[in-house]
Write a structure and sequence with these properties.
The complex is a heterodimer of chains A (274) and B (371). Chain A has 274 residues and is mostly helical. Chain A has a single domain, classed as MetI-like fold. Chain A has eleven helices and no strands. Chain B has a six-stranded mixed β-sheet with strand order 6-7-8-3-9-10, with helices on both faces. In chain B, strand 9 and strand 10 form a beta hairpin. The chains are: A mainly alpha (274), B alpha+beta (371). The complex binds adenosine-5'-triphosphate and magnesium ion.
């Protein structure tokens, strides 16, 4: 049994380890290690295509995570004031949303957006003043942000809801008792209490968007995010440069995830101080 | 205007008028009528679930009564939210803000005032409050760096720094150990005298209520059973429930055989009769309970002294200042006797199995309405 578990872990982590190892390879062949070097990192960072894809990825991840955090936090707050059965239903729906495979979300979003654009574009063309050229809505950064933002929002709702549920209700009463208006209580007590959840939600949403390939593949249109770039390059063979990019993405993602965990854990301690 | 002010000054600081609170089919409080006088220390006392917290929360403004009225300072406040009431509360589990320092917790109430007082003034008030609860210099600490007793003091400071007209305390000492609780009881009482603020305390600890309060309001299943000073309740309980709740007592069930003014004779189930004082008039034939405090009974060694009840010692428990004897008698069954240390030292301790005689002064037994 233990052997089996060990085998599973090796199977999971050896490929990742190999990629990370060979990203530092001085030689260009993936078959043998020829000494330590950072040259592939240098090359990857000097490649304008990589940098452009990285820029797109960062921009999309940031905006999507930001929108998801704002909408998700508001939704979580609204949910927590709902009555019992309705709230349980919505909580269950949020779980389902998080569990749905990326490919389903990708296809569903693609179909939904294409249908929408097919309806909206002719209407726009009709309504647009005759003097100008009517804009055409299509796939691109905006649709990618929307798709990533929706999924990230489910993550944010999940985390912030847990945080609100774990919050001591009597803190809100204590604040009101001391003369704070409902908004004052929100600003001075509720928000600081759920802030770790909000921040962690943002980081997880960012990481999700930054890592995502499947949804981006469907809805990014002509935009290239870093995972999409990696995918298209791999068709021309696995180069150490790709290894270096993959390792960087992995490092950034892991760092953000660990940071989110640390924030949540620290917040839990502060939340149980009363 | 002036007239309004004088009538308000004469009005009780807080009042329940037939106030009730239902949660669906659960009646948490029913037809509470009680006036709380300015500057008094009043306790709500009763077992778990009797509605103490509900009563307090109606004063704080967290619950609106579903029937009747709640008044503060002569005004009906049924619909006034908590944040507009000149009332502060010390919560059972303190509810200190974990993301703020001790000083910021205490300053919280002052910072909500409009116009907001100057920072220097707030800092002075916070320091004075810390001084008052004997935590000078603790302002910069975080809440989780404080012990349970210290947190309790911070919660108290956070409330009194606002100089509320009414301070509500929901079992504020329940989480403290016995010794610390005793100290805090004395401190709370001293603070109340010093500040002149009206205190309303919720507790299920009768000793706490007896030692601290000017008046005690005894609740049972959402209703007021009796309101009175500690001595009143001790000496003249309205019924068995109150006698049982205030102090320890032996109870003997029976029927009123005869009455004479405030005295009555009770015929017990076993046929024996018992004389006693009747604080609340009862009719002959009514079911009643005789209550006899263990400390009012005297035990003497040896059988059958004149006028006493012959008993056999069944058990003996050493309690420090007192020794508690469980004795058995043919007519009365088992009951408790509390013997002070000195009396026991003078007469020599009785052992289980020894024969003795129990006496009590005339009028020591109370004949109460059975409930
Ligand atoms: N929010 C609520 N919803 C439904 N029932 C409630 C609610 N709050 C209190 N009750 C019920 O009202 C009754 C009185 O409750 P309350 O909290 O006032 O009791 P208490 O005397 O303070 O008890 P304790 O000593 O255990 O704190 C209880 O039966 C309780 O179950
Ligand atoms: Mg209670």
């Amino acid at each position: 049994m233990r052997l089996y578990a060990l085998a599973v872990y090796l199977f999971l982590y050896i490929p990742i380890g190999v990629i990370a190892l060979f990203s530092f390879n001085a030689g260009r062949h993936a078959s043998q290690f020829q000494g330590f070097s950072l040259q592939w990192y240098g090359r990857a960072l000097a490649n304008p295509l990589v940098m452009e894809a990285l820029g797109t990825s960062l921009r999309v991840a940031f905006v999507a995570a930001l929108l998801a955090t704002l909408c998700g936090t508001a939704a979580a707050l609204a949910l927590s004031s709902l009555a019992g059965p309705l709230r349980r239903l919505f909580d269950a729906l949020i779980y389902v949303a998080v569990m749905i495979p990326g490919i389903v979300i990708g296809i569903a979003t693609l179909i939904a957006l294409v249908t929408l654009f097919d309806r909206v574009n002719p209407a726009l063309a009709v309504l647009w003043p005759a003097s100008g050229q009517a804009p055409q809505l299509g796939m691109g950064q905006a649709s990618l942000i929307a798709a990533h933002g929706l999924f990230a929002m489910a993550l944010v709702i999940l985390i912030v809801r847990a945080r609100i549920a774990g919050m001591d209700r009597s803190l809100i009463e204590a604040s009101a008792d001391l003369g704070a208006t409902p908004f004052g209580t929100f600003r001075q007590v509720t928000l600081p209490q759920i802030a770790p959840g909000i921040l962690a939600g943002f980081l997880l949403g960012f990481t999700f968007s930054f890592d995502d390939f499947i949804i981006a593949f469907f809805v990014a249109g002509s935009e290239t995010t870093l995972p999409v770039y990696v995918f298209s390059s791999i068709r021309r063979g696995v180069t150490p440069e790709i290894n270096a990019i993959g390792t960087m993405v992995l490092a950034v993602s892991l760092a953000l995830l660990i940071l989110a965990q640390a924030i949540l854990r620290r917040g839990r301690r502060q939340g149980s101080g009363g | 205007m002036d007239e309004d002010r004088t009538t308000r000054a004469a009005a009780p600081i807080a009042e329940f008028r037939e106030a009730g609170k239902r949660y669906g089919s659960v009646v948490a409080a029913e037809a509470l009528s009680l006036a709380i006088a300015r500057g008094e220390f009043l306790s709500f006392l009763g077992p778990s679930g009797c509605g103490k917290t509900t009563a307090l929360r109606m004063l704080a403004g967290f619950e609106a009564p579903t029937s009747g009225q709640v008044l503060l300072d002569g005004r009906v406040v049924n619909d006034v939210p908590a944040y507009r009431r000149p009332v502060n509360m010390v919560f059972q589990h303190y509810a200190l803000f974990p993301h703020l320092t001790v000083a910021d917790n205490i300053a919280y109430g002052l910072r909500q005032r409009r116009p907001r007082p100057p920072a220097a003034e707030i800092a002075r008030a916070v320091d004075a409050a810390l001084e008052l609860v004997r935590l000078p210099g603790f302002g910069r600490r975080r809440i989780w760096e404080m012990s349970g007793g210290q947190q309790q003091r911070v919660a108290l400071a956070r409330a009194i720094v606002n100089r509320p007209k009414l301070l509500l305390l929901d079992e504020p000492l329940a989480a403290l150990d016995r010794k610390l609780r005793r100290d805090m009881q004395i401190e709370l009482q001293g603070l109340q005298r010093q500040l002149g603020i009206t205190f309303v305390l919720v507790t299920h600890d009768q000793e706490e209520a007896l030692s601290m309060s000017d008046r005690i309001c005894i609740l049972r299943a959402g209703r007021i059973v009796q309101v009175g000073g500690p001595r009143d309740l001790y000496d003249r309980p309205a019924n068995r429930y109150v006698a049982d709740f205030i102090g320890k007592s032996n109870f003997f069930e029976g029927r009123v055989a005869a009455t004479d003014g405030d005295r009555a004779t009770l015929t017990l189930a076993g046929g024996r009769s018992l004389d006693g004082r009747m604080p609340v008039p009862l009719q002959p034939g009514a079911a009643a309970t005789a209550s006899l405090r263990p400390e009012q009974i005297v035990l003497t060694r040896g059988p059958a002294a004149a006028g006493g009840v012959p008993v056999r010692v069944a058990n003996r428990i050493f309690l420090g200042e007192h020794t508690e004897y469980l004795v058995e008698s043919a007519g009365l069954g088992g009951f408790l006797v509390l013997v002070p240390r000195q009396a026991e030292a003078d007469a020599g301790a009785l052992e289980p199995g020894d024969l003795a005689t129990a006496h009590w002064p005339p009028g020591a037994a109370l004949i109460l309405k059975a409930d």
